[in-house]
Design a protein that fits this description.
260 residues; 2-enoyl-CoA Hydratase, Chain A, domain 1; 11 helices; 48% helix; ClpP/crotonase-like_dom_sf; Enoyl-CoA hydratase-related protein; Enoyl-CoA_hydra/iso
Length: 260
């Protein structure tokens, strides 16, 4: 039974909650292991169509729990530290690699790796008390969990460097202005779930393949080749046929699905 993570499914939506509110949902080693397992479960569950990632009591994730951090240089070898950091990076790796869309509900601090977890999601909703902070430089570290790769691709190199090199906060209003957040909401989990519900109303295969096609690393020709393959899958998808029929008949589509 997980101690640091709550994993709940309802009507095709998996909600993963980092549940350590006494430390603003900062993570320890066990949290990372449980978070990776929850993401694997969501990715492999055919009854899950959208993932919502959030933190307990209206928060998100304040990065690593410094009260449980060892003295890395004294207690671990470089190889051991690499293994630990790989596991943290794998949360980002899984979120980035999962074709099922993910929505981050950021109600509180999203700091360091917690910021990177939010950036790795496909969509973000932020609350009035939420903020994003790549604060690694302020404690003498580099963004080891994906931030220096993710942020420039989301908001451009120059603006990303402003936040990466200063460690300054990205406020809710700035997050929306920069295109990082869909919305500022008093209840970001509720708003994130509304977005998830909107996605559930669409043909699932088309949503997943569209999500996979958004890849800034591929060339245009690579994109075109993948698009042909994905489009052929979608053409033969029963949900495509139902969506076309519903459009022609002036009604909402009715997809036959087994939700978790």
């Amino acid at each position: 039974m997980p101690e640091d993570i709550r994993y709940e499914t309802d009507g095709g939506i998996a909600t993963i909650t980092i549940d350590r509110p006494d430390v603003h949902n900062a993570f320890r080693r066990e949290t990372i292991l449980e978070l990776n397992e929850a993401l694997r479960e969501a990715a492999g569950d055919d009854g899950v169509y959208v993932v919502v990632l959030t933190g307990a009591e209206g928060g998100f994730c304040a990065g690593a729990d410094v009260t449980e951090m060892p003295d890395w240089s004294e207690e671990m070898t470089e190889e051991e530290y690499a293994g630990y950091l790989w596991a943290v990076q794998n949360v980002v790796r899984q979120l980035r690699g999962m074709e099922k869309p993910s929505v981050a509900a950021v109600g509180g601090p999203a700091v360091g790796a917690g910021c990177d977890f939010a950036l790795a999601c496909d969509l973000r909703v932020i609350g009035p008390d939420g903020f994003l902070r790549e604060g690694f430089v302020r404690v003498g570290l580099v963004p080891g969990d994906g931030g220096s790769w993710l942020l420039p691709r989301l908001i451009g190199e120059s603006k990303a460097k402003e936040y990466l090199l200063t460690g300054n906060d990205i406020t809710p209003e700035d997050a929306v202005d920069l295109g990082l957040a869909v919305d500022v909401a008093d209840d970001p989990v509720e708003r994130a779930t509304e977005l998830a519900d909107d996605l559930l109303e669409l043909p699932a295969l088309a949503v997943r393949r569209t999500n996979a096609l958004v890849d800034p690393e591929q060339s245009f020709e690579e994109y075109c080749e993948r698009a042909i393959a994905y489009q052929w899958e979608c053409v033969n998808d029963p949900e495509h046929a139902e969506a076309i029929a519903a459009f022609g008949e002036g009604r909402e589509p009715e997809f036959e699905r087994d939700y978790s």
